[in-house]
Structure formats: structure tokens, C-alpha cells
Amino acid sequence: MYVAVKGGERAIDAAHAWLDRSRRGPVDQPVLDTAQIRDQMGLAVTRVMAEGSLYDPDLAALAIKQACGDLIEAIFLIRAYRTTLPRFGASIPIDTAAMRVKRRVSATFKDAPGGQILGPTFDYTHRLLDFRLMADGELPTEPLAEGDETEPAATPHVLSFLNRDGLIEDAAPDETPPADLTREPMELPADRALRLQALARGDEGFLLGLAYSTQRGYARNHAFVGELRIGMVAVEMDIPELGFAIEIGEIEVTECETVNQFKGSRSEPAQFTRGYGLTFGQTERKALAMALVDRALRWEELGEEDQGAPAQDQEFVLSHCDNIQATGFLEHIKLPHYVDFQAELELVRRLRAGLSDHEEDAA
Amino acid sequence: MSRPETTPDPIRKETLGLLARAPSGRLAQLLPELPEHDLLRAPEIGTVMVRGRAGGTGAPFNLGEKTVTRASVRLPSGMVGHGYVQGRDKGHALRAALIDAMAQQDAEGVEERILAPLRDEEVARRKAIATQAAATRVEFFTLVRGEDE
């Protein structure tokens, strides 16, 4: 039962004023501006955009600043702001095959047509603290190596080659309009489109843990990274007043396609199956985790056994992957619950009193 | 507003895309003074739901929204222009709509003064990234182990 409390306005104002001052830090330090956060904390910004489910690097940087670097709080701010904006419509689905890639690797084919491009990656670093960054933060003196790319080449999806030979299940074109969980409450069981939307905005840590659980044997499906790519894609939308579609911008996305253990039967030849991850910005851990969880959730349509694993249970995964829902419910328990607790306290006292009466009777 | 779908005008389509992607500050430099116009739709900030496809090519799903700003204008000549641009800069959307209208009456002038520089700069930005990416192109070799002999 919820009972309102009142009072405490002065203390609350003072608490918020202190928060504002502690955000600013010592005044003899230069103030951190949002352009610096946007450009120098880029991976925090993309995480906030991905889980805030709103692509706008400037707003994400502002939210990170306001939240003092608490990314879930920043995601909360973005989700709240998003609800204040009118929606003009939905885009034409983005064409990730036409991505201008800055990173593109395949763990399954070393000679993937279009080549393997490492891009700006933490892979193969030694994970040693670089004290030069603490000293001055200046750029390294050696110039960046330059490749001889004159025309950015098209990079077809790696899995399309497997698909051509029928070795992997097809992702056949389909124009079913997808349900939108930001417009209608999510109903279970959810189809794959709705699941992918929930996973795309789901918490990276939660999905990472679930994906890891599948690797450790809770609904193992033995994923290979067929392809991981990061780059810019155009966003096109039909404009009614023009009568045709135009590009309304371009966004950075990370796409991960996994090649998973096969299905097949006496009548159907064996085929690899797929998991899919797609996220805003450079967010490859998230995209990879999303692909593994997507694949685990597909057990039923692929005719697999329900192993009772958490990653297979869509009610469990989809109801708990949203960090704003989760933190809202979790954190509300620290707010005043005096009346609820009073009732519990009374109950415990009555039970204890009843028990001691009983003991006296027995004696 | 609803009209039968018309054949896209490829030049106008390219222009509007270029304007949508352009840095808003650069557009303000290239068109510092706004020509006389009526607002048909005052600049408005909103979102567009970006869709992806399962497996890259399958059924569409809602990936998340992006911010978009739009505006529509009419020049004294009667020419109407529409701007839909990324982000939340109202000046950007207004200038895009004005340039769209201006380009329909003076294609060459607008091309020379505004669109050509925007296009060249975008090509240069993209090429710089592609060149960087090419420098990280990697060849992996699998090694034959001795005991496989």
C-alpha cells in the first residue's frame, strides 16, 4: 500500500544543491563541457544512446554530465526526455550491407571478401595502464599509418556467402510491420521483432551475463562470430509532403551475426543457424551478447529442447533486461515505506505475542 | 498531406540527404543570411523510429529512435521547400528547407555556392575514415602444427 509523505522540502533542496556543486568538482579545475564528453568519452555516449534508445550524441553527453557519470541514471534521463518528443514516423529498415565500415572482423573466415578491418579496437592491447594519458593526454607523436583506400569498397555480409550455398538458415525478406514496445505494453510470448527491440535497449551487463551463461552450458548453442561490423549507415524515411524517401541522417551502428550450431533432420539437410545483434554506436560487447541471447531465445522455432536455462526463458529475459524498469523498482524501496513497515512490525509483534502465550500454556 | 507516391526526383533527393547529414554550423556559414520566406511549418524537433532487420535481411524490428528536426517554407516566388535533418538544431532544419526551395529555382547557383562545398567536404571526411580503416586491414594466417605431418 502506498501512503504519501510530506515535508522535507528544505532538506531535499539542499541535497540537490550539494549534488550540483559536487558535480562541478573543485573550481580551480576547468569545467568539463559536453562536447568533450561527446568526443572524448565516446563509448560511454554510445552506451547511453543504445540503452536510452535515442540516437543523439549531444543529448547523451549532457545526460552523462548531469548524472555525474552514472550511466544508468543518464539512460533514465534520456528515456524521460524521449517521451516529450513527437514521433514523425518510422524509417525504412537500415541497409547494413551498405555500411561504411570502420571495423569489420570475422572469426569464421580469415579471407572474407572485403577483408578484415580491425578499426579502433581494444583487442590485442595488453591492458596495461598508460600513464602517458595521466601525464599530459597529448596525441602520440608517431603519425597514424595510412592505408591506400581510394574508394571505400562495398563490404557484403559474410553470412551471405554461407547462405548462397544453403549452409545456413536464410534470413528471408519479410515486410511484417514490427510491434513497438514503447507504444503498446509488451505481450508474451513476444515474436522475434519485439524481442530484438527489447534486447537492443536492454542492459549490457544483464545481457553479457546471460550470453556468458549460454557459453558455459546453460542452453549452449556454440556461437561463432560470423561477422562483427561497426560503421555508418544512412537512415531513410518516406516523407509524405515530398512523396518519396530521403535520407534524414546517418548513424553509427554495431552489427553482430553469429553462426550457431546446426539444425536438421532426416528430411532436412543440416544447416547452421543464426543469432543477431544490432545496436547504436560502437557497442560491440552489447551487440555480441545480444546475438547470443537472441539465438538462445529462438529455441522453440528451431525445434530445440527447453533446457530450462535462464537465457531460453523469454518471460525471464524480456521482463528483466530493461535497466530503467529494474532500477526504478529496485531503487524505490529506499524511499519512505514507513506505513508498510509499521504494518509488518505489528504483525511480527502479534505473532511473537501469540507464540509466547502458547509457550506459557504448554508450561 | 497524403498524395500518391511520386517518382523520386534524384537530384532533390540527393540534395535533401546532403543537407540532413551536413554539420549545422557549416550550413550556417554557407547561408548566413536567410532569404525572405513564409513558414509553412515552423521548425519542430521530434524523433524517427529507426528500424533494422533480423539477420540484416529478414523481418523489420524497431532498433530505437533518433532525433530529427523538420521545417517547411515558401519563398516569395511560391517555391516550397522541406527540410528534415538529424539532431535538434532548428536553424539547421530551416536552412535545409530554404536551400531545398532555392535549389528548385536556381539549381546552378545553389549547387555552386552550397551543395558542392558540402559534398566535397563530406567526401573528404568519409575518405579520411576509409583510409584509416584501410591501415588496420589485417591478414591472419593459420599455422600448420608439426604434429599434423
UniProtKB/TrEMBL annotation, chain A:
<dbReference type="Pfam" id="PF05861">
    <property type="entry name" value="PhnI"/>
</dbReference>
<dbReference type="GO" id="GO:0019634">
    <property type="term" value="P:organic phosphonate metabolic process"/>
</dbReference>
<dbReference type="InterPro" id="IPR008773">
    <property type="entry name" value="PhnI"/>
</dbReference>
<keyword id="KW-0456">Lyase</keyword>
<protein>
    <submittedName>
        <fullName>Carbon-phosphorus lyase complex subunit PhnI</fullName>
    </submittedName>
</protein>
<dbReference type="GO" id="GO:0016829">
    <property type="term" value="F:lyase activity"/>
</dbReference>
From TrEMBL, chain B:
<dbReference type="Pfam" id="PF06754">
    <property type="entry name" value="PhnG"/>
</dbReference>
<dbReference type="GO" id="GO:0019634">
    <property type="term" value="P:organic phosphonate metabolic process"/>
</dbReference>
<dbReference type="InterPro" id="IPR009609">
    <property type="entry name" value="Phosphonate_metab_PhnG"/>
</dbReference>
<dbReference type="GO" id="GO:0015716">
    <property type="term" value="P:organic phosphonate transport"/>
</dbReference>
<keyword id="KW-0456">Lyase</keyword>
<dbReference type="GO" id="GO:0016829">
    <property type="term" value="F:lyase activity"/>
</dbReference>
<protein>
    <submittedName>
        <fullName>Phosphonate C-P lyase system protein PhnG</fullName>
    </submittedName>
</protein>
